[in-house]
Amino acid sequence: MKSLLSNTLEIRITTHPPAPSISLSPSHSVYIVGEHVTLSCYPPDSYKAKGIQYFHEGKEIHSTTHVIYTEVRSSAGNYSCGYWIETHNRNINSMASDYVTIVITNILPPPSISLNPFHSIYIRGETVTLTCSVPDGCVANQIQYYQHGRVVQARLTDERTVMFVISTNNAEVAGNYSCSYTTTKFSRSINSSVSSSTNQDHLPSS
């Protein structure tokens, strides 16, 4: 004799939702210590995400939009994200996004600047040579000279030392001068810190 059938249980089967996309803003090939970058995760429009997960080197970070400050070296590395949806009272994780990589570099040290000849004051008509020198171990693609913070000369160069000759015939050349250099890392142009300023003054004509 057969028994009556039990209650029916339904087994539903689904798949993981498709992977989201992930982006960096601003997007650079390399970031300088002190900059920050925002990671954003975008689930497909047709999926209503209940939450978003961020991963750094496989370790989960809980945030909807995670801002990474690059003052700390541990912010460098590979990032990915995922999301989850709720269906039939169960949270289901999506496939993981592709990863984006954050590379961090140090701030470039400032160059040095000097005057030749060096005097505390210059007489109108004299010639003064400013020399901007890139620190040892650094490579420059361009060197910029500034007067009162305004660029007065920019020269493309692969030399570590660039000279800028000034004639004191023009009173407008008096003032504070500084310089900086630009280098390329991972296809990004990066400016160095500005050198300390040097004062170039002159006597008025009689």
UniProtKB/TrEMBL annotation:
The domain of life is Eukaryota
Give one Pfam family: Ig_2
Spell out the SUPFAM superfamilies in the cross-references: Immunoglobulin
**Gene label:** LOC105946319
Gene3D superfamilies the UniProt entry points to: Immunoglobulins
The answer to whether the entry has keyword Cytoplasm is: no
Q: Which PANTHER family match?
A: MHC CLASS I NK CELL RECEPTOR, OSTEOCLAST-ASSOCIATED IMMUNOGLOBULIN-LIKE RECEPTOR
Cross-referenced InterPro entries: Ig-like_dom, Ig-like_dom_sf, Ig-like_fold, Ig-like_Receptors_ImmuneReg
Has keyword Disulfide bond?
yes
Protein name listed in UniProt: Uncharacterized protein LOC105946319
Q: Which UniProt keywords apply?
A: Disulfide bond
The segment(s) forming the Ig-like domain are 20-81, 111-195
